[in-house]
Design a protein that fits this description.
The chain has 232 residues and is α/β, with parallel strands linked by helices. The protein contains seven helices and eight strands.
């Protein structure tokens, strides 16, 4: 993956926003050079939406492990360990869970890392980055929600107004560890705000219905437009 200081941000398409009625979707994503898919796993309690279950995943991406496109799991659950262990069966690239619902954050991060998988924690919009002070020592990345999780289909919900400040605050805190820890940004990442999100400190951009899968334009055209903004 490309993430890291001095490198252009990675684009991780959100699997729940793709049109899986298109049998060529995976091949189209491969042709664009996509190397990782963002997979939201929601239990219906942490947030009200249940867009995808782990049992659906093999039918979408195929049953083979170690595929050419990696998986970026975002666990939104009250029972983090259950879903983390299930996600690890897919041999993903990375897995994160929400720090707000985890009693044993350090232990769960170490379970993920022991499986040879990049580990991270996710923060809801209003969760202060100060909660990362000790967890950051073992994290490979942090996912920041820019909207409230589970309400992506509510087109009236926009990115929280303090998003840029929070990204900047998070970058400063993570840099105190003395190593680069990626910041992944999820929720209303669009053509209009991408440049500012990158400037604030974003390394990984979750691409959904506001960018890569924007209605009215072809996937390939949206991707070229997205890359042009990133490379400005």
């Amino acid at each position: 993956m490309n993430s890291g200081p001095g490198k252009p941000p990675d684009i991780y398409p959100s699997i729940i926003c793709a049109d899986w009625n298109d049998p060529a979707m995976m091949d189209r994503l491969r042709s664009l050079g996509i190397r990782c898919l963002h997979v939201d796993i929601i239990d219906g309690i942490f947030s009200p939406d249940i867009p995808l279950s782990l049992s659906d995943l093999p039918h979408i991406i195929g049953k083979q492990k170690n595929a050419d496109i990696g998986l970026d799991f975002h666990i939104m659950s009250m029972d983090n360990e259950k879903f983390v262990r299930q996600a690890l069966e897919f041999e993903p690239y990375q897995v994160c869970f929400h720090i707000e619902t985890c009693l044993h954050t350090d232990r769960l991060l170490r379970i993920i890392r022991a499986a040879g998988v990049r580990c991270g924690v996710a923060l809801n919009p209003a969760t202060p980055v100060s909660m990362l002070e000790y967890a950051a020592e073992i994290c490979d990345y942090v996912l920041l929600m820019l909207i409230n999780p589970g309400f992506a289909k509510d087109r009236n919900e926009s990115m929280v107004p303090y998003a840029y400040k929070k990204i900047q605050d998070c970058r400063r805190l993570l840099d105190k560890t003395g190593r680069h820890i990626d910041i992944e940004l999820d929720g209303r990442v669009s053509f209009d705000n991408t440049a500012a999100l990158i400037k604030a400190g974003g390394d990984i951009l979750v691409a959904g219905s506001s960018s890569l899968f924007l209605a009215g334009s072809a996937l390939e055209d949206n991707f070229r437009r997205f890359k042009a903004v990133i490379n400005e």
